[in-house]
Design brief:
The radius of gyration is 17 Å and the shape is globular. Helix content is 53%, strand content 19%. β1 and β2 form a beta hairpin. It has a five-stranded mixed sheet with strand order 3-2-1-4-5. α1 runs parallel beside α2 and α4 packs across α5. The relative contact order is 0.21. It contains five helices and five strands. It has one domain: Nucleotidyltransferase, domain 5, CATH 3.30.420.10. With 170 residues, it is of the alpha/beta class.
Length: 170
């Protein structure tokens, strides 16, 4: 089983893959450009995700977990920045559906997959679990998202096996 995690951002988007329970690939997509004109950045993000799929991942995942921005706007956040980030999420979601039409694609908010853990703690937990080193917090969060997806897929597989075993025993 192959699970991909994507930590979207306007400039640095982390992508990571967990295959058969091991972190196997991770990288950062860096998209530079005007902070006010996001259209070209979204095009570059889409193109870069396509290149990552072909050059790095090389095969279709079973599940893709993409961090979705929170729907609320906090007092200390600019609404425009959240909307731009949501644009990056939408581009990543649409592109992964196009790239891997048979994969399950899911968006999850940070509270769903890591709760209140900060970036440093997330990085440390993923480093201990997978014995890897990532270049930045975006890659660590992508590993964390893939880990979340891996655990979810493994739990589903165990539940399916139990249901199949019960049906056979009847």
């Amino acid at each position: 089983m192959l699970v991909v995690g994507i930590d979207v951002a306007l400039v640095n988007t982390g992508v990571a893959a967990i295959e058969d329970g091991r972190a196997t690939k991770w990288c950062t997509i860096n998209v530079e450009g005007s902070p006010d004109d996001t259209g070209p950045r979204f095009v570059k993000l889409r193109e870069s995700l396509s290149l990552v799929a072909v050059r790095i991942l090389k095969k279709a995942p079973d599940l893709v977990v993409i961090e979705r921005p929170e729907h609320g706007i906090r007092d200390d956040r600019d609404a425009g920045n959240i909307m731009k980030l949501y644009g990056s999420f939408a581009v990543a979601y649409a592109e992964t559906v196009r790239l891997w039409p048979r994969a399950e694609i899911m968006g999850v908010e940070p509270m769903s997959w890591k709760g209140t853990l900060g970036k440093g703690m997330t990085a440390r937990l993923m480093q201990l679990r997978y014995k890897i080193d990532c270049a930045n917090d975006h890659e660590w969060d992508a590993v964390g998202l893939a880990d979340y997806g891996w655990e979810l897929a493994a739990a589903r597989a165990r539940a399916g096996k139990r249901n199949l075993d019960r049906a056979r025993s009847r």
